[in-house]
Design goal:
Length: about 450
């Protein structure tokens, strides 16, 4: 691996590689775990519809803005925002806040990812004739001490190992291989679920909206999810944008990523809800939906343990690209600012994430279960602070920087790369970043603090 000081800045090798890596960051537990349980507890299709709108009105513009700023500066998130507006270094704060978000998200994300990896082995053992997954399997795992900590450590070592290999050799190769596997596995699960008797009620739940269920809180939950889903507001996509080749067109890349990511969520929903309804399950099962309901539902059908194992392999695959992108935000900064070698930076970042991760994991069990900060245990606190405070703040700032402060010629030059003339969407994106997106995101934030009730 070339030394950071001696190398030309690494980048994704092609437009396709950039697309795969960017999609690899977006797709994760958000699709397989959060999207289904939020859809289930927020009224089904009505939530799906508002989520699709949020992706289009908020997610897509911010994603394009992040990729644009990243490629314009070709720097890590802190330095990208510190230099993108001439004479205004303060915006580096977006990158700093992003690094804190990365640490906080990884703390609970690796806990959940650890459960997913544990389920691959538990379900696999059941498929091979061992004890099945029972009603207490999840609470025993999540509420334990050493077992979840060990899985979390394993997951972090895996993600840090991939990141140590660098941008094109590590991130790009891993995601290019993993994404197709993910799609194939999802479609297998979909076919199994959709061919169950009574499956159609699940399809109905997912796609036939009851407009009466669209409330202010459903709308805001959907907006929040679109943020977390597309890895926005914290410099992840800015960092990935900095590795984008000049041949890649920003807006179509962003649109394809948003579309493909949404498709993965819908495919996950199509694997889960038809089966939930076919077996009389509970769609509003909350965050436990994935871990409690899926094994139960699949256990009731022929070949159940095999499909349960497949499903969790799928979820595990999906977590990897997302975790790698979360690690990359601090790692890119340490390599470029601290002139650190990638493997060292990866170890250091992984270690810091584990330190916080231990708090999140132990707060699910007896050891730290009673410790509350601002009324929340560490797991919920990290989730709340990142998703409800830092990401929306970052999103507003990014929209303002790209829409109002960035020199117009820079904005237009980046959007125009890969085109002969100025593309039609330049003015549309600009209008969204200036007006629509910041206003909508502000609404999420104010709602998070209970200042505004829509
Ligand atoms: N987008 C990921 C998911 O939906 O699982 C989560 C995530 C990854 C959030 C990277 C933020 C981030 F920077």
């Amino acid at each position: 691996m070339p030394k950071p000081s001696a190398m030309k800045r690494d980048h994704f090798s092609s437009g396709l590689g950039a697309f795969a890596a960017t999609l690899g960051s977006a797709v994760g537990l958000g699709n397989i775990w959060k999207f289904p349980y939020l859809t289930g507890s927020n009224g089904g299709a009505a939530f799906v519809l508002t989520y699709l709108l949020s992706v289009a009105l908020v997610g897509l513009p911010v994603l394009a803005a992040e990729l644009l700023i990243g490629r314009r500066t070709r720097l890590n998130a802190v330095h990208a925002y510190g230099t993108v507006v001439k004479g205004q270094k303060t915006w580096a704060l977006i990158g700093w806040a992003g690094m804190i978000s990365a640490l906080l998200i990884m703390a609970f994300y690796t806990d959940v990812a650890g459960w997913v990896f544990a389920y691959v082995f538990k379900a696999g053992a059941a498929a091979l004739g061992g004890p099945g997954l029972g009603p207490d399997t999840f609470s025993a795992l999540a509420g334990g001490t050493w077992e979840p900590l060990a899985w979390q450590a394993g997951v972090l070592v895996l993600a840090s190992g991939i990141i140590a290999f660098g941008v094109s050799r590590g991130i790009e190769r891993a995601t290019k291989t993993l994404m197709p596997i993910l799609l194939v596995l999802l479609v297998v699960c979909d076919i199994r679920a959709l061919t169950l008797p009574g499956a159609f009620a699940g399809v109905d739940f997912l796609f036939r909206p009851d407009f009466g269920k669209i409330s202010a809180s459903v709308l805001l939950a959907a907006l929040g999810l679109s943020f977390f889903k597309l890895s926005l507001g914290m410099g992840t996509m800015t960092t990935y944008g900095s590795y984008l080749p000049d041949t890649a067109r920003i807006a179509p890349t962003a649109a394809r990523v948003a579309l493909a990511d949404t498709l993965v969520s819908l495919l996950a929903g199509l694997a889960i809800f038809p089966a939930v309804f076919a077996f009389g399950g509970q769609p509003a099962g909350g965050p436990g939906l994935l871990f409690n309901t899926i094994p139960l539902i699949f256990s009731k059908m022929a070949g159940g343990p095999v499909f349960t194992t497949l499903f969790f392999i799928l979820a595990a695959v999906a977590t990897i690209g997302a975790m790698v992108s979360l690690l990359e935000v601090p790692v890119a900064w340490l390599v470029e600012k601290g002139k650190m070698r990638r493997p060292v930076a990866a170890c250091l970042t992984g270690g810091a994430m584990y330190a916080l991760g231990i708090l999140a994991t132990l707060s699910q069990g007896r050891v730290l279960g009673d410790v509350k900060v601002l009324g929340k245990n560490f797991f919920d606190l990290f989730d709340f602070a990142s998703s409800n405070v830092l990401l929306p703040l970052g999103g507003i700032a990014i929209a303002l920087v790209a829409g109002w402060l960035l020199a117009r010629k820079d904005f237009e030059a980046e959007l125009g790369k890969g085109y002969g003339k100025r593309p039609w969407h330049t003015a549309v994106l600009s209008a969204f970043l200036r007006f629509v997106t910041p206003v909508l995101v502000l609404a999420i934030l104010l709602n998070g603090f209970g200042v505004l009730r829509l």
